[in-house]
Every structure is written in structure tokens, then in C-alpha cells.
């Protein structure tokens, strides 16, 4: 066991820190979030130039062969910067599927342009009825000669409106929530029959509702084997869950820091409100929640990097903790900022909103606690 | 002791129920059902309906045009009003400044202000907090200097809810700094918002809404007859008003309505998903809030009974404020959890009357659940933060 970062990891962490500190202050973030695209194309290209879009991919694919630890280091810092650029959608979600399931020509067609920053992509893993069950898929794909015909609806697709490539899990066999019979299709957004309704989300990011009506694709778009997409989908969603948990920890830490700072400067009754014991104890609880969450994040990330038997359980553990402790830290940060905490102009309000959004995705606290409760004794 | 209503109370309940069924204008009912924010004209029209029926001054004494209702009647009224999904009453006139004027104002002020408050002819707003004076309200700095027959006021009030629609504002102002206690130099002034020198600036809240404002006063001349009660006694009056405000904030009846609506929603398949009644965790949380709320309803009733028997709501009203807002916020959270991913779209534009269903993102008000959760974080902050309420309880109830 070794809790230290290696030299490459330290450099990566430092370079992201430097970017967030120098080039991504809150006002800049708000400007990007409010732009038509919803993020900065220039920043995205910078990420590609710096090699950040290549981090988790194999060297053969032009990547840096990073893993969960490198993703954690980046996401935690993206959390501090409250980044709106679609790293999760492109690199973790779409990239995660492609690097595992795509063949050489599919990688050349879709993965390489994602890494170079030319192609925006995403994974449509939510359907209107699915809630948190990623196997709950009603979108169908039916074979027709060499082609497949897709019909169905995808909901709240992150980065959906900006994506040229949308990976669509579709049912090619089985019942509504069966894990078997799910096939992954790489569908280009300009195909006939795709309608995309894009909107901003509460955290300043972008998502879309997507409807597929007799969308015809050929079998070159199938990623992996027909009917066997679920294990890939499942592991990518776990990876994405870990990634947003790292982002959440970054947000919790900065909320704690900003709250402590604010209470030291806010004077009421002739003294800084930080001098009140009732508030001190609550900030101590915030700190404890941050430390515990960070510790659990490290464990969960290492367990996943080392691919131990606990990997899946660890994902549920950290997401449960973010769903409880993270939610609490967000609420407390707002409360201790008083009226200012609920204003649009204050950065804490926006950190709180992103943290809330993270709690709402990839399964809430109850969902993951159920998974943990169901694990048999070993 | 009986928990069941008497025949008289049942008859009263039926009367209230029919009133909301028959007299709540359809367009307002539609807006409420579609979660559309009411225009100020709608709000006034609704309050005028109540006035016409003689029900505008729910907790006012009969001599000033109030209902003179018993605690149980007030409870029934609040319950039925919420169950009909009627709009709330904008508190600043009817529930806040009205009681101050009839309790502490002189006869001329009562004649001049009470009828318009009761009839909702004048929209009032509240000038209490200042940028540097939130929880520590007594530190307020807005000055009112007496010059001949008027005061000249200078300063800034903040978090002024719906101030953008207001005709008048009631303010706590500092008329003297030469006092033993900071609370002693504070007076209660009524200010016409159209007076030269009054200007208003929106504050946008985290959900993107414009509900609160900052109000600036620059050499605003206010006639001396707009002072309520004695100069320097404003803190005492303001405190009484705050206790009324806290009782109003409780919102037990509204919470009960929202929980019932959430239960109905949970029993249905939304967007083809399994009904949440099959989700044991969700239903247990819902049930736990229901228990807490039932207790609050009866704590509320006990307070109403004390008020109806002539006492002002005392420091115990702080319990109602803390618990009432905690419950509201738990309902906010659970409602958002019910929406899962559909709490994420930020689509405020779709909450307009008769928005085409085909274009709607999420079902019903799913996408509004997160905005409401965000917006209502204010509930544990306004009206004196819940931390301040606990200080009040510690000091004035427990005597610590």
C-alpha cells in the first residue's frame, strides 16, 4: 500500500491546479456557462493540447494510460474550479465505452478525434422511465439486412446537444430491465430520424432530450458484441460515478474553505460570526465530512485502480457518502452564508447547485445504500 | 378533548371548502395547477375575493374588519385554503403591518391605512434587514433625522421580498444613536415608495428568480405622521411583527398539501417508471415527514389558540419557524429526489400558462423541484435565521 502520488501524477495534479488558479476564476466560469455553447471551445482545445483529453486511454490509442487515480486528481480539481467543459461526457463516458468496446477502425473514427478535441461525444445512458437503473432500456434496435433500425427516447443526455457522436445503448433482445440483450451503438448526431432538444441544466452545464425515430445505422456502429453491451456500460457508469464523486469532494472542500473564510469576515453582534460556538461546531462537522469523504474517495479510487473484488462496492460506498455528507456540506455552506448564500452572484450558490446535481445522478444515497445492504457477507 | 370537529366546525369547513371551489377564479386555479407564478394582479384579485367574503383579516379583531375566528376556525381555513391549492396571502400587508397598525398605531393611522390593507388596495413590503444587519437586526443603520415636520431617511434595506410591486414599505429606522441599548433608538416608519429618493434594485436568487430586492433611500422625506407608535419604540413593535411573521412562515397547511400531492405522485407511474410507492426508502422518508408535520400542526394549533384568546404569539413562535421550515425543506428535498434525473433540466420558461405538453421537459413540475429546493433554502435564513430562533428560544423560553 502506498498513499503517495508518483511523479507523473503529481505533475498532472499541479498542472490542473495551475490552470484552475490562473485561467478559470468564477467570473470566467460564469461567462463560459452563459455562452451559447455552454462552455469554452478554446478551453476544450487547450485540454486536448495539454493531453488532458488523452489521460485514460491506452498509449496505442494516443493516450497516457492513466486510470481512476489520474481521473480522480483531475475531477477533484475540476470541482474546485466548477468547470463546465464536458470532460465527463467526452472522456469518461463516451471515451470509456470506446476504449473498451471499439475496434481499431471505430477508434480511429471516433476515439482519436475525441482525444484531439475535434469531436464532441457522449453516452445516452438515461431513458425517461429508467431512473437509476441503467439496464432499464426500452430503446430498440432491430436488424434490417446489414442495417439496424433504432427507435426510442433518451433523457437528460449530458452534453447531448453539442455532441457529434452519441453512444446509444439499445435493446436488441430481452425484457425491459434485463442486463442481457443490450447493444451499444455509436450513432452520429446528424443521422436522419434523430431529434435533439438541448437545454441548460441547474448546474450551468448542458443536456438534451433525444428521440430516435427509425434511425438507420449500419453494423459498423456496433461497439462490442451484439447483446453484450451491459458489462461495458456498467463499468463505465461506475467509473463516471467515481469521477463525479471526486468532483464532489473538490466542491465540498472549497465550500468548507469559503464558509470558514466568510464567517471570519461577517460581523454581527460586534464580532465575527465565526466566534459563535454553535457555528464553529457546524463547520467542524463540515470539515469532518470533507475529510471522511476524501478518505473514502481515495480508498474507492485505489480499489478501482487495482481492480480488487471490492471495486463495485466501493463505488456505491463513496456515492452514498457524497449523497449524504456532500448534501449536508452543501446545505450548511449556504446556510452559514445567510442570505448571501442564496444569491446568484455568490459562487457558493453555484457550487451548491453542482453538488446537488451530482447527488441526483448515477443513483442517490438510498440507491447505493440498498446496493451495499445487499452485498452478502464474505 | 376531542380531535373530531363539531357540527358547527364541520359546517364552517364546508363553507370554506365551497368558497374556494366556487370563488377562486379559474384562471388563477389553472396557473396554480400548472405551477405558473402569479402576476401581482392575480394575487390582488384573489385577496380581494377574500375581502369581499369578509375573510381577508383572518387573525384581525372584528372591530377592524377581521374575522374574529377561533383557533380551530383559523386552522380549518388554512387547511382548506392549502387543500384547494389557493395562492397564499402575501403577508406584508394583511399579516404583518396590519396588526402593527391596529395594535400600536393612532386612530388617524388606523383610519388611513387599515381599510386599504384589508382590501389589498396597497401592496406593502418589508424594510427590516440591511446589508450589514441580517441576524443582528438591532445593528441597523438606516437613519431617520427629524427636520421640522418630517423625517429625512438615508440608507439601504435588503432582501425586500416582492418590493418591485410594492406601493408602501414599512421600515425600522434609527432615530437616535444616543441610547443605552442599540434597540432603543429604533423607530417604525411607513414610507410611500413613490417618494423621491426611493430606488429599488433586483437581487437575483440562485434559482434565477427575481423575488427579492435592495431598496435605497437617499434624502427621502417622510411626514412625521407616518411614525407608528412612539419614537424609539420601533424595536418592540418590530419584534411583535416578527413573531407574527414566524407564525406565518410555518406553513403547516401548505406542507400537508404538498405531502399529499407527493403521495399521489408517488403512486403513479411517471414517464413509464415504476411508481415510487414501490420504493420502500422513499415511502419511509415520506412517512417520517408526515409524522413530524402532524406534530407541527398541533403545535401550531396550540399557538393559534393562545393568540385567539388575546395573547400575541410569544417567543414560542420561534419553534414553529424552525420546525416549519425544516419540514418544508425536507419536502423540497424529497420532491426533488422523486424527479431523479428530471430535477436537472433548467427550463424555467416552460412554466407559463398552457405551455404545450409536447414541448415540456419532465412531467408536471419535476424540473421545478430542484429550483424550488434551491430557492427555499432561504426559509431557514429569512424571518430571523433558524440559528437566531434557537438563540431566542434558549434565552426567552428556557431562560438560559
Name of the CATH class of the largest domain in chain B: Mainly Alpha
State the strand order across the main sheet of chain A: 1-4-5-8
Assign the structural class of chain B, choosing from mainly alpha, mainly beta, alpha/beta, alpha+beta, or little secondary structure. Answer: alpha+beta
CATH architecture title of the largest domain in chain A: Up-down Bundle
Spatial order of strands in the largest sheet of chain B = 1-4-5-8
Mean pLDDT of chain B: 94
Distance from N terminus to C terminus of chain A (CA atoms, Å) equals 22 Å
| Total count of domains of chain B | 3
Identify the overall geometry of chain A.
globular
CATH topology of the largest domain in chain B: Butyryl-CoA Dehydrogenase, subunit A, domain 3
Q: How many helical stretches of chain A?
A: 11
Distance between the termini of chain B: 33 Å
Classification by helices and strands of chain A: alpha+beta
Give the helices and strands of chain B as they follow along the chain. Answer: HHHHHHEEEEEEEEHHHHHH
Uncertain regions of chain A: pLDDT < 50 for 5+ in a row?
none
Helical proportion of chain A? Answer: 40-55%
Please provide a written account of the structure.
- The complex is a heterodimer of chains A (378) and B (400).
- With 378 residues, chain A is of the alpha+beta class.
- Chain A is 51% helix and 16% strand.
- Chain A folds into three domains: 7-119, Orthogonal Bundle (Butyryl-Coa Dehydrogenase, subunit A, domain 1); 123-228, Beta Barrel (Butyryl-CoA Dehydrogenase, subunit A, domain 2); 231-373, Butyryl-CoA Dehydrogenase, subunit A, domain 3 (Up-down Bundle).
- A four-stranded mixed beta sheet of chain A has the order 1-4-5-8, with helices on one face.
- Chain A is globular, with a radius of gyration of 21 Å.
- Chain A starts with 6 loop residues before the first helix and ends in a 5-residue tail after the last helix.
- Chain B is of the alpha+beta class and 400 residues long.
- Chain B folds into three domains: 7-89, no CATH class; 124-232, Butyryl-CoA Dehydrogenase, subunit A, domain 2, CATH 2.40.110.10; 250-397, Butyryl-CoA Dehydrogenase, subunit A, domain 3.
- In chain B, 46% of the residues lie in helices and 14% in strands.
- Chain B is built from twelve helices and eight strands.
- Chain B has helices at 7-23, 26-33, 40-53, 71-83, 91-104, 107-118, 234-249, 252-267, 280-308, 317-339, 366-375, 386-397, and strands spanning 124-127, 143-147, 150-157, 168-174, 186-192, 198-204, 210-223, 227-228.
- In chain B, the strands form two sheets. A four-stranded mixed beta sheet of chain B has the order 1-4-5-8. In chain B, strands 2-3-7-6 form a four-stranded antiparallel beta sheet, with no helix packed on it.
- The model of chain B has no long low-confidence stretch (mean pLDDT 94).
- The interface between A and B is large, with 48 and 48 residues.
Amino acid at each position: 500500500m502506498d498513499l503517495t502520488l508518483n511523479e507523473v501524477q503529481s505533475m498532472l495534479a499541479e498542472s490542473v491546479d495551475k490552470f484552475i488558479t490562473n485561467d478559470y476564476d468564477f467570473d470566467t466560469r460564469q461567462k463560459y456557462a452563459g455562452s451559447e455553447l455552454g462552455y469554452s471551445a478554446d478551453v476544450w482545445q487547450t485540454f486536448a493540447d495539454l493531453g488532458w483529453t488523452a489521460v485514460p486511454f491506452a498509449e496505442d490509442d494516443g493516450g497516457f494510460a492513466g486510470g481512476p487515480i489520474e481521473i480522480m486528481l483531475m475531477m477533484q480539481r475540476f470541482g474546485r474550479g466548477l468547470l463546465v467543459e464536458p470532460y465527463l461526457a467526452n472522456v469518461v463516458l463516451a471515451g470509456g465505452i470506446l476504449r473498451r468496446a471499439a475496434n481499431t477502425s471505430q477508434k480511429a473514427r471516433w476515439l482519436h478525434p475525441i482525444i484531439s478535441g475535434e469531436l464532441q461525444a457522449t453516452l445516452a445512458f438515461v431513458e425517461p422511465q429508467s431512473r437509476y437503473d441503467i439496464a432499464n432500456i426500452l430503446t430498440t434496435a432491430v436488424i434490417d439486412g446489414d442495417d439496424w433500425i433504432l427507435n426510442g427516447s433518451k433523457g437528460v443526455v449530458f452534453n447531448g446537444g453539442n455532441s457529434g457522436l452519441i453512444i446509444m445503448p439499445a435493446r436488441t433482445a430481452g425484457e425491459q430491465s434485463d442486463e442481457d440483450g443490450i447493444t451499444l451503438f455509436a450513432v452520429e448526431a446528424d443521422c436522419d430520424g434523430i431529434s435533439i432538444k438541448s437545454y441548460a441544466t441547474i448546474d450551468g452545464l448542458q443536456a438534451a432530450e433525444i428521440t430516435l425515430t427509425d434511425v438507420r445505422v449500419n453494423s459498423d456502429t456496433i461497439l462490442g458484441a451484439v447483446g453484450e453491451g451491459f458489462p461495458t456500460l456498467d463499468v463505465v457508469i461506475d467509473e463516471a460515478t467515481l469521477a463525479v464523486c471526486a468532483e464532489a469532494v473538490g466542491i465540498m472542500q472549497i465550500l468548507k474553505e469559503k464558509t470558514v473564510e466568510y464567517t471570519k469576515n461577517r460581523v454581527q453582534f460586534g464580532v465575527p460570526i465565526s466566534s459563535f460556538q454553535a457555528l464553529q461546531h457546524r463547520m467542524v462537522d463540515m470539515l469532518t465530512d470533507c475529510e471522511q469523504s476524501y478518505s473514502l474517495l481515495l480508498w474507492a479510487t485505489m480499489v478501482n485502480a487495482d481492480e480488487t473484488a471490492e471495486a463495485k462496492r466501493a463505488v456505491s460506498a463513496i456515492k452514498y457518502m457524497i449523497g449524504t455528507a456532500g448534501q449536508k456540506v452543501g446545505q450548511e455552506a449556504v446556510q452559514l452564508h445567510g442570505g448571501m448564500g442564496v444569491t446568484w452572484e455568490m459562487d457558493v450558490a453555484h457550487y451548491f447547485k453542482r453538488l446537488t446535481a451530482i447527488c441526483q445522478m448515477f443513483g442517490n444515497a438510498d440507491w447505493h445504500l440498498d446496493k451495499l445492504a445487499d452485498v452478502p457477507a464474505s | 378533548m376531542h380531535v373530531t370537529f363539531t357540527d358547527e366546525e364541520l359546517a364552517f369547513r364546508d363553507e370554506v371548502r365551497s368558497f374556494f371551489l366556487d370563488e377562486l377564479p379559474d384562471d388563477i386555479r389553472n396557473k396554480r395547477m400548472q405551477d405558473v407564478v402569479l402576476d401581482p394582479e392575480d394575487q390582488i384579485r384573489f385577496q380581494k375575493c377574500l375581502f369581499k367574503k369578509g375573510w381577508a383579516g383572518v387573525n384581525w379583531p372584528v372591530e377592524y374588519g377581521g374575522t374574529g375566528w377561533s383557533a380551530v376556525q383559523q386552522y380549518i381555513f388554512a387547511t382548506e385554503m392549502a387543500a384547494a391549492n389557493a395562492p397564499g396571502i402575501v403577508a406584508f400587508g394583511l399579516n404583518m403591518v396590519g396588526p402593527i397598525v391596529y395594535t400600536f398605531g393612532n386612530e388617524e393611522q388606523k383610519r388611513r391605512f387599515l381599510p386599504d390593507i384589508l382590501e389589498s388596495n396597497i401592496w406593502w413590503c418589508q424594510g427590516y434587514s440591511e446589508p450589514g444587519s441580517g441576524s443582528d437586526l438591532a445593528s441597523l443603520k438606516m437613519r431617520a433625522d427629524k427636520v421640522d415636520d418630517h423625517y429625512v431617511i438615508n440608507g439601504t434595506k435588503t432582501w425586500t421580498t416582492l418590493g418591485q410591486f410594492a406601493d408602501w414599505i414599512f421600515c425600522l429606522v434609527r432615530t437616535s444613536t444616543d441610547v443605552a441599548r442599540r434597540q432603543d433608538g429604533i423607530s417604525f416608519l411607513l414610507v410611500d415608495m413613490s417618494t423621491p429618493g426611493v430606488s429599488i434594485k433586483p437581487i437575483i436568487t440562485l434559482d434565477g428568480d427575481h423575488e427579492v430586492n435592495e431598496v435605497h433611500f437617499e434624502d427621502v422625506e417622510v411626514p412625521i405622521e407616518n411614525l407608528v407608535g412612539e419614537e424609539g419604540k420601533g424595536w418592540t413593535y418590530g419584534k411583535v411583527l416578527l413573531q407574527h411573521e414566524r407564525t406565518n412562515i410555518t406553513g403547516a397547511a401548505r406542507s400537508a398539501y404538498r405531502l399529499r400531492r407527493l403521495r399521489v405522485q408517488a403512486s403513479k407511474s411517471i414517464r413509464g417508471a415504476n411508481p415510487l410507492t414501490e420504493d420502500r426508502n422513499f415511502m419511509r422518508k415520506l412517512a417520517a415527514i408526515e409524522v413530524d408535520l402532524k406534530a407541527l400542526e398541533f403545535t401550531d394549533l396550540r399557538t393559534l389558540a393562545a393568540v385567539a384568546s388575546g395573547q400575541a404569539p410569544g417567543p414560542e413562535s420561534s419553534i414553529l419557524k424552525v420546525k416549519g421550515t425544516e419540514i418544508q425543506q425536507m419536502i423540497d428535498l424529497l420532491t426533488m429526489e422523486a424527479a431523479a434525473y428530471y430535477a436537472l433540466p433548467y427550463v424555467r420558461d416552460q412554466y407559463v400558462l398552457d405551455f404545450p405538453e409536447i414541448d415540456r421537459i419532465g412531467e408536471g413540475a419535476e424540473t421545478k423541484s430542484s429550483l424550488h429546493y434551491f430557492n427555499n433554502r432561504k426559509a431557514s435564513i429569512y424571518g430571523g435565521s433558524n440559528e437566531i430562533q434557537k438563540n431566542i428560544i434558549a434565552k426567552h423560553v428556557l431562560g438560559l
